[in-house]
Amino acid sequence: MVNDTQKHPHRWLALTAMSLGTFMGLLDVTVVNVALPTMVRQFNTSFTNLQWVLNAYTLVYAVSLMIMSKLGDMYGRKKIFLGSLILFVVASAVNGMASSLFVLDIGRGVQAIGGAGMNSLAMALVASNFEGRQRGTALGILGSVIGISSASGPLIGGYLVEHFGWPSIFYVNVPVGIVTVIMTIIFVQETPSYGENERVDLWGMLLSAAGLFSIIYGLIVKESHPGWPWLGLHVGGWLVAGLIIMVIFVVVESRLQQPMLNVAFFKEPHFIGTVIVAFALGAGIYSFSTFLTALMQNYIGYSALATGVRQLTISMWSLILGPLTGILGARFPKKRLIGFSLLIGAMGFLAIANAVGPQVSFANLWPGMVLIGITNGMVNPLLNTAGMEGVAPQEMGMASGLINVFRQLGTTVGVVGFGLVQDTRYEQYLSAHLNGTGMPAKMTAGIHAALVTAGPFSGHSIAWSARLARTPFVHAVCQVVLRAYDRGMGAVALCAAAVVVVGSLAALLLMRGPVATDAQTKD
């Protein structure tokens, strides 16, 4: 009998290629954050105008995930992965050379299409290039890469911007991407073109894209304008339209013989539990990194690079634990490993909520960050493996895409939802305590309005401004702003804890127990 190694002797080099593609695609979701201050000066613009450098990638990435997954299932995952990789590399080069925000925004959108293709198909390609026990190990390693890439943006971005300027965060993708293209061509095995004789479900693709676009765009608008009401046309209109379109999408797909999405996925409790965990991971772990970065840079005072180094406390656990999850997942029920690992993260968030205060430093935060890192390092790899269990080979790309969609949607919802919680607690504290600083009523009203407009992320720039420093009220105002921020940050950590607890319950109650896997049937 021919063993696995003889059938595909270069499978680990294939895994390296797929891991590099995944790393680049996910890194570019967060790496731009630390470059924004430099870009503000370079383009002589405001942070508000630069938001679309971030939002264009987030929006197009989420919209493209399912479409690229389906195209990979139909025409061959290696082909679509490779085409996506080349598109990503070309767009990265264009972004590095961009002389205007318009070009950069368009380039980021194109880059996101490539990133979506790489990330939606890498998991399915790993599952089809590996068999037996090695599949769990390989998926565990890929899960580690997902965890590391999502958490290492501040470190890598901070180093590149500090030493080589903001274009380097895009240019670095070019040489890495070229190496990945060559390795993919040589080492990655193609999957069958399962749907080459099928008709492309254009209506399904259009409806899924329109629905996800409307929902995520509505959330982005709400994030940019926290004072706008949920039920207003500019926010609620987009969200309601998105939900209606997604309902139409499900109805249409359920009636087609060759649909883009097999709705039977959502009749399976195990898969429902899987995507709930993916959503909780995005909303709880990944969105929280935005708030943690703001705390460390804006209020503690660390540089972007110093912040990234300290956040290795979270990301390094993906490197340490990821390869071990394949062994653990073969010995213990994955649902329990995922469920209890999420509870470890909940304890980490509670520790951070307790640590936040006017004198907080990294020394107070690291125990909670370690617990969050352990959760990230355990859950991501196990989630990938569990999500592929029981999925037909021709649908692995779509299953992978759906897990990525819910992880990304969770991240977006977490950033917006937690941001609103933080804004509310921050404003409540300001309203209750600014009057006690001794400032005249007119000055108090002006400072209050300025602080609310700046928001929790940037309120420190008002409190520590040179103009306020010349007044006798500066110390009192700074203390109020610090405590207002702490109230908001503590509430965010508590909300994140609640989200991952929900994810834990979904894993324990919905995901299936041990199943007969390739490893058990072949070994």
Plain-language structure description:
It is globular and about 75 Å long. Among the domains are: 189 residues, Up-down Bundle (Growth Hormone, Chain: A); 56 residues; 62 residues, no CATH class. The relative contact order is 0.13. The chain is built from 22 helices and no strands. 81% of the residues lie in helices and 0% in strands. The protein has 523 residues and is mostly helical.
- Number of separate helices: 22
Element string (H = helix, E = strand): HHHHHHHHHHHHHHHHHHHHHH
Helix fraction bin: over 70%
Query: By helix and strand content, what is the structural category?
Result: mainly alpha
Beta-strand percentage range = under 5%
- The first-level CATH class of the domain at 8-196 is given as Mainly Alpha
* CATH-level-4 superfamily name of the domain at 8-196: MFS general substrate transporter like domains
Q: How many β strands by DSSP?
A: 0
Q: What is CATH's topology name of the domain at 8-196? A: Growth Hormone, Chain: A
- Biggest β-sheet strands, sense, barrel: none
Could you say what the CATH architecture of the domain at 8-196 is? Up-down Bundle
End-to-end C-alpha gap? 12 Å
- Gyration radius, rounded: 23 Å
| Mean pLDDT across all amino acids | 85
Runs with pLDDT <50, length 5+?
1-7, 516-523
